[in-house]
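W.,

You were right to be curious about this one. When I first looked at the sequence I had no strong expectations either way, so I just let the prediction run and decided to look at it fresh. Below is the sequence, 154 residues in total, followed by the output.
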Amino acid sequence: MNANSLKSSLATPIPRAVAWMGYGGLLPFLFLALASIVDQSHTPLWNQALIAYGAVILSFVGALHWSFAMTLADLTPSKRNECYIWSVIPALMAWLAIELASFVSAAILVLGFFIQCLQDYRLVTASNLPIWYFGLRLRLSIVAGLSLSVLFFH
C-alpha cells in the first residue's frame, strides 16, 4: 500500500452496517473518557471501565487476524503464520493492562492499538482485504487511543 492507496482507503466508502458497528463501538470510549474528566468523584470507576472496554476491543481486533489467517486464500504460508501468532498478542496485552495501574494500563492499551494498526496495514498490503478496511481501522484506532490517553492525566 503506497501513499495513494492509503489516501484511497481513507476516502473509500465503508459498507453502511460496518460503519455503524465500527463507529458505534467508539461511543463507550468517548463516553467513558468524558465521564472520567467530568465526574471527578467517580474517576477511578470510569477509568477502570475504560481500561476494561479498551482491553475487550483490543482483544477483538487482534482476533480478527486469526479469522483472516483462516479465510484469506491469497496469504503466503509465512504471512498466515504471522497472523495466527499476532492474533493472540493483543489479548495478552489486554490481560496485562487489566492487572496494572491506570497509567501503565493506558500506555499498554494505546501501544497495543498502535501496533495493531501497523499489523492491519501489513496485512492489507499482503492480501486482498477491501480497500476501506485499513482506513476504518486507522480511524477507530486513533479515537480509541486518544480516549485511553485521558488516563495519562488522572
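Here's what jumped out at me. The two ends are 38 Å apart (CA to CA). And, maybe more interesting for your project: Residues 103 and 153 are 8 Å apart (CA to CA).

Coffee later to discuss?

I.
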